[in-house]
Design a protein that fits this description.
- The protein is built from six helices and no strands.
- The longest helix has 42 residues.
- By secondary structure, it is an all-alpha fold.
- It has one domain.
């Protein structure tokens, strides 16, 4: 019996933790590099953003990543359901992901994205676009924080799974020649 292989539950929580860290890094990068350009002078900067992102943008990257993250979160919770030490961390991470990122994005950001990037100045005044941009940026800090919380909770679950693996005594049969 080999103790250097990952069980399916370990592999899934490794993948989930890894994907949450990638998502957090992507949102952080978007915050630091992209958003200063997007929101520096609405509505002109919003129009420039639409033009610049005509081929690909965050809406092409984040939905598939989000779907993968949710699928891995649900799989992690399912596979860890009997582990009383790890399950709360995985469940908390899933809750943070679903409510703090997905639901918050759907109910808060998607309407503002429509106002700023789909309808724009053709439908809304400069003042409405500027106010919407401020609301978006302010809310984005909540989303960034929740993404960090999700990643930390997933990582703690992973750490606890890996710590349990190393603290499990190796059976005598595995130690002998």
């Amino acid at each position: 019996m080999t103790h250097n292989t990952f069980s399916p539950r370990t592999a899934v929580i490794v993948a989930y933790s890894w994907v949450t860290l990638i998502a957090f890094g992507a949102i952080l990068t978007e915050t630091v590099i992209l958003y200063p350009n997007v929101f520096h002078d609405p509505p002109a900067s919003l129009d420039l953003t639409v033009e610049f992102m005509s081929e690909a943008g965050p809406s092409d990257f984040f939905p598939p990543l989000g779907a993968l993250t949710v699928a891995l979160a649900v799989a992690s919770v399912f596979l860890l359901r009997r582990d009383k030490k790890v399950r709360p961390w995985a469940v908390a991470s899933l809750i943070s992901l679903v409510f703090g990122e997905f639901a918050f994005s759907a109910f808060y950001f998607w309407p503002r994205n429509t106002i700023m990037f789909d309808e724009g100045a053709a439908v809304h005044s400069v003042e409405v676009l500027r106010q919407t941009a401020v609301e978006f940026e302010t809310g984005h800090w909540v989303r960034l924080t929740m993404s960090g919380v999700t990643a930390v909770l997933a990582f703690v679950a992973l750490f606890k799974v890996l710590a349990a693996r190393t603290s499990t005594p190796v059976p005598v049969e595995a130690r002998v020649g």
